[in-house]
Predict the structure.
Amino acid sequence: MTGNLLVGITGNHCVVIAAEKYYENQNNICSLDGKITVAWSGYSSESLMVVDKAKIYTNSIHGLNSPANRIVEFLIDPEIRVLNNLPTLPYTESFMVASCDNNGPNLFVTDTYGTISHVLASAVGRKSDLVTNFLVENYSTANKSILGTIEFALKTLCVISVPDTKIIGVSVTAFNRPFEVVDNNIISQFLSKIELSRIVVNDAVKINNI
Protein backbone atom coordinates (compact mmCIF):
# COMPACT_ATOMS: atom_id res chain seq x y z
CA MET A 1 0.00 0.00 0.00
CA THR A 2 1.24 3.49 -0.86
CA GLY A 3 0.70 6.74 1.03
CA ASN A 4 2.26 8.11 4.18
CA LEU A 5 2.77 5.59 6.96
CA LEU A 6 0.39 5.46 9.94
CA VAL A 7 0.91 3.34 13.05
CA GLY A 8 -1.94 2.88 15.52
CA ILE A 9 -1.56 1.04 18.83
CA THR A 10 -4.00 0.39 21.66
CA GLY A 11 -2.50 0.59 25.13
CA ASN A 12 -3.96 0.42 28.61
CA HIS A 13 -6.84 2.92 28.45
CA CYS A 14 -5.39 4.74 25.44
CA VAL A 15 -4.83 4.67 21.69
CA VAL A 16 -1.72 6.23 20.18
CA ILE A 17 -1.40 7.08 16.50
CA ALA A 18 1.98 8.01 15.02
CA ALA A 19 1.99 9.36 11.49
CA GLU A 20 4.35 10.54 8.81
CA LYS A 21 3.41 14.05 7.70
CA TYR A 22 3.16 15.02 4.04
CA TYR A 23 4.76 18.37 4.73
CA GLU A 24 6.29 19.90 7.82
CA ASN A 25 3.19 21.96 8.63
CA GLN A 26 0.58 19.59 7.24
CA ASN A 27 -1.02 17.37 9.89
CA ASN A 28 -2.96 14.25 9.00
CA ILE A 29 -4.31 13.50 12.49
CA CYS A 30 -7.20 15.37 14.07
CA SER A 31 -9.93 15.08 16.66
CA LEU A 32 -13.51 15.19 15.43
CA ASP A 33 -15.16 16.05 18.74
CA GLY A 34 -12.51 15.72 21.45
CA LYS A 35 -13.30 12.02 21.91
CA ILE A 36 -12.80 10.46 18.50
CA THR A 37 -9.53 10.76 16.58
CA VAL A 38 -9.06 10.32 12.83
CA ALA A 39 -5.84 9.89 10.89
CA TRP A 40 -5.52 9.30 7.16
CA SER A 41 -2.99 7.95 4.70
CA GLY A 42 -3.15 9.00 1.06
CA TYR A 43 -3.31 12.77 1.24
CA SER A 44 -5.61 14.62 -1.14
CA SER A 45 -8.16 17.40 -1.12
CA GLU A 46 -10.80 14.66 -1.10
CA SER A 47 -9.38 13.26 2.15
CA LEU A 48 -9.69 16.62 3.87
CA MET A 49 -13.22 17.08 2.58
CA VAL A 50 -14.33 13.69 3.92
CA VAL A 51 -12.78 14.45 7.33
CA ASP A 52 -14.47 17.86 7.40
CA LYS A 53 -17.82 16.19 6.65
CA ALA A 54 -17.19 13.77 9.53
CA LYS A 55 -16.46 16.71 11.87
CA ILE A 56 -19.75 18.32 10.91
CA TYR A 57 -21.57 15.03 11.40
CA THR A 58 -20.14 14.29 14.85
CA ASN A 59 -21.11 17.74 16.05
CA SER A 60 -24.64 17.61 14.61
CA ILE A 61 -27.82 16.36 16.22
CA HIS A 62 -27.62 13.25 14.02
CA GLY A 63 -24.05 12.29 14.87
CA LEU A 64 -23.58 13.65 18.38
CA ASN A 65 -21.96 11.05 20.71
CA SER A 66 -21.66 8.53 17.87
CA PRO A 67 -19.31 5.62 18.66
CA ALA A 68 -16.09 5.18 16.70
CA ASN A 69 -17.46 2.31 14.64
CA ARG A 70 -20.26 4.57 13.34
CA ILE A 71 -17.77 7.29 12.44
CA VAL A 72 -15.58 4.91 10.49
CA GLU A 73 -18.67 3.74 8.59
CA PHE A 74 -19.47 7.38 7.82
CA LEU A 75 -15.96 8.02 6.46
CA ILE A 76 -16.25 5.27 3.86
CA ASP A 77 -19.99 5.55 3.13
CA PRO A 78 -20.28 5.47 -0.71
CA GLU A 79 -23.57 7.40 -0.69
CA ILE A 80 -21.96 10.31 1.16
CA ARG A 81 -19.15 10.24 -1.38
CA VAL A 82 -21.55 10.40 -4.31
CA LEU A 83 -23.63 13.20 -2.77
CA ASN A 84 -20.48 15.31 -2.31
CA ASN A 85 -18.95 14.50 -5.72
CA LEU A 86 -16.08 12.59 -4.11
CA PRO A 87 -14.30 9.58 -5.63
CA THR A 88 -15.88 6.22 -4.87
CA LEU A 89 -14.21 2.80 -4.77
CA PRO A 90 -11.32 2.39 -4.74
CA TYR A 91 -10.79 5.31 -2.36
CA THR A 92 -7.72 7.53 -2.42
CA GLU A 93 -7.08 7.16 1.31
CA SER A 94 -7.13 4.78 4.26
CA PHE A 95 -8.30 5.83 7.72
CA MET A 96 -7.54 5.09 11.35
CA VAL A 97 -10.26 5.96 13.86
CA ALA A 98 -9.53 5.85 17.60
CA SER A 99 -11.63 6.23 20.74
CA CYS A 100 -11.40 5.29 24.40
CA ASP A 101 -14.40 5.02 26.72
CA ASN A 102 -15.83 2.91 29.57
CA ASN A 103 -15.55 -0.16 27.35
CA GLY A 104 -11.86 0.37 26.72
CA PRO A 105 -9.76 1.58 23.78
CA ASN A 106 -10.91 1.07 20.20
CA LEU A 107 -8.93 1.29 16.97
CA PHE A 108 -10.57 0.87 13.56
CA VAL A 109 -8.73 0.77 10.26
CA THR A 110 -10.01 1.02 6.68
CA ASP A 111 -8.36 0.25 3.37
CA THR A 112 -8.86 1.78 -0.07
CA TYR A 113 -11.61 -0.77 -0.81
CA GLY A 114 -13.70 0.28 2.18
CA THR A 115 -12.96 -2.74 4.37
CA ILE A 116 -13.19 -2.00 8.11
CA SER A 117 -11.05 -3.85 10.67
CA HIS A 118 -11.24 -3.57 14.48
CA VAL A 119 -7.66 -4.10 15.68
CA LEU A 120 -5.30 -3.88 18.63
CA ALA A 121 -2.52 -2.44 16.50
CA SER A 122 -2.03 -1.75 12.82
CA ALA A 123 0.07 -0.03 10.19
CA VAL A 124 -1.20 1.40 6.90
CA GLY A 125 0.58 3.22 4.12
CA ARG A 126 3.98 2.68 2.55
CA LYS A 127 5.80 -0.54 3.46
CA SER A 128 3.06 -1.32 5.98
CA ASP A 129 3.64 -5.07 5.58
CA LEU A 130 7.17 -4.71 6.93
CA VAL A 131 6.01 -2.51 9.79
CA THR A 132 3.13 -4.87 10.61
CA ASN A 133 5.62 -7.71 11.05
CA PHE A 134 7.42 -5.60 13.67
CA LEU A 135 4.11 -4.95 15.45
CA VAL A 136 3.21 -8.64 15.50
CA GLU A 137 6.61 -9.59 16.93
CA ASN A 138 6.67 -6.93 19.67
CA TYR A 139 3.11 -5.95 20.63
CA SER A 140 2.55 -8.55 23.35
CA THR A 141 5.68 -7.52 25.30
CA ALA A 142 5.45 -3.75 24.79
CA ASN A 143 4.84 -1.34 27.66
CA LYS A 144 1.16 -0.35 27.33
CA SER A 145 1.16 2.75 29.56
CA ILE A 146 0.54 6.03 27.71
CA LEU A 147 4.24 6.90 27.58
CA GLY A 148 5.15 3.30 26.79
CA THR A 149 2.63 3.19 23.95
CA ILE A 150 3.94 6.48 22.53
CA GLU A 151 7.48 5.10 22.54
CA PHE A 152 6.40 1.82 20.95
CA ALA A 153 4.42 3.65 18.25
CA LEU A 154 7.43 5.82 17.40
CA LYS A 155 9.78 2.85 17.43
CA THR A 156 7.44 1.04 15.06
CA LEU A 157 7.09 4.04 12.74
CA CYS A 158 10.85 4.45 12.63
CA VAL A 159 11.34 0.93 11.32
CA ILE A 160 11.18 2.71 7.95
CA SER A 161 10.61 6.41 8.73
CA VAL A 162 13.27 9.04 9.28
CA PRO A 163 13.31 9.91 13.01
CA ASP A 164 12.63 13.61 12.49
CA THR A 165 10.04 15.60 14.48
CA LYS A 166 9.44 17.81 11.43
CA ILE A 167 7.75 14.95 9.58
CA ILE A 168 6.26 12.94 12.46
CA GLY A 169 3.07 13.62 14.38
CA VAL A 170 1.70 11.69 17.36
CA SER A 171 -1.72 11.78 19.01
CA VAL A 172 -3.08 10.27 22.22
CA THR A 173 -6.72 9.36 22.71
CA ALA A 174 -7.22 8.31 26.33
CA PHE A 175 -10.05 7.61 28.75
CA ASN A 176 -11.19 10.69 30.71
CA ARG A 177 -8.54 12.85 29.04
CA PRO A 178 -8.87 15.41 26.25
CA PHE A 179 -7.46 14.64 22.83
CA GLU A 180 -3.76 15.40 22.80
CA VAL A 181 -1.19 16.06 20.11
CA VAL A 182 2.15 15.10 21.61
CA ASP A 183 4.59 17.99 21.89
CA ASN A 184 7.57 17.91 19.54
CA ASN A 185 10.00 18.15 22.46
CA ILE A 186 8.59 14.93 23.92
CA ILE A 187 8.68 13.23 20.52
CA SER A 188 12.31 14.35 20.13
CA GLN A 189 13.24 12.82 23.49
CA PHE A 190 11.73 9.49 22.50
CA LEU A 191 13.40 9.56 19.07
CA SER A 192 16.78 10.24 20.70
CA LYS A 193 16.24 7.30 23.03
CA ILE A 194 15.30 5.05 20.10
CA GLU A 195 18.37 6.13 18.13
CA LEU A 196 20.64 5.53 21.14
CA SER A 197 19.26 2.02 21.60
CA ARG A 198 19.95 1.30 17.92
CA ILE A 199 23.54 2.49 18.28
CA VAL A 200 24.04 0.25 21.33
CA VAL A 201 22.63 -2.76 19.49
CA ASN A 202 24.76 -2.10 16.39
CA ASP A 203 27.91 -1.70 18.50
CA ALA A 204 27.13 -4.98 20.28
CA VAL A 205 26.77 -6.74 16.92
CA LYS A 206 30.09 -5.34 15.75
CA ILE A 207 31.84 -6.54 18.91
CA ASN A 208 30.36 -10.04 18.50
CA ASN A 209 31.61 -10.14 14.93
CA ILE A 210 35.19 -9.32 15.88
